[in-house]
Amino acid sequence: MNEPMLWNRNCPIPIAADAERISLAHGEGARLSRRLISEIILPRFAATANRRFADAAIVTTIGCRLAICTDSHTVSPMFFPGGDLGSLSVYGTVNDLAVTGAYPRWLTMSLIIEEGLPIAILERILDSAGHAARECKVTIVAGDTKVVPRGAADGLFINTSGVGEMMDPVPPGPQSILVGDKILVSGPIGRHGIAVMSARESFAFDPAPLSDSGSVIHAVASLRNSVGEHLRTIRDATRGGVSAVLHEWAMECGHTFALTESRIPVTDEVRGACELLGLDPLYVANEGTIIVAVASRFAEIAVTALRHVPGCEQAVIIGEVQSRGISPVTIRRTIGSAQPLDEPSGAPLPRIC
Amino acid sequence: MKFIDEFRDPALATELVRRIRATAQQPRVLMEVCGGQTHSLLRHGIDVELQGIVELIHGPGCPVCVTDISAIDLAQQLASLPGVVLASFGDMLRVPASQGSLLTARTAGANVMMVYSPVDAVRHAQRHPEQQVVFFAVGFETTAPATALAVLQAHQLGLENFSLLVSHVRVQPAMEALMQAPDNRVQGFLAAGHVCSITGYDAYDDFAQRYRVPVVVTGFEPVDLLQGILECVTQLESGTAEVRNTYGRSVTRFGNPAAQRVVETVYEIDDRAWRGFGVISAGGYKLRDQYETFDAPRRFGLTRSTETNDSATAQRCRAGEVLSGRLKPCDCPEFGMACTPDSPLGAPMVSSEGACAAWFRYHRGSKL
Amino acid sequence: MCLGVPGKVVEWIDRDPVFGRALVEFGGIRRECHMACVPDAEIGNYVIVHAGIAITRVNEQEAERTLQDFAAIAEGLSEPDEFNSAGTI
Question: Which of A334, A78, A71, A291 is nearest to A186 (CA)?
Answer without folding.
Answer: A291
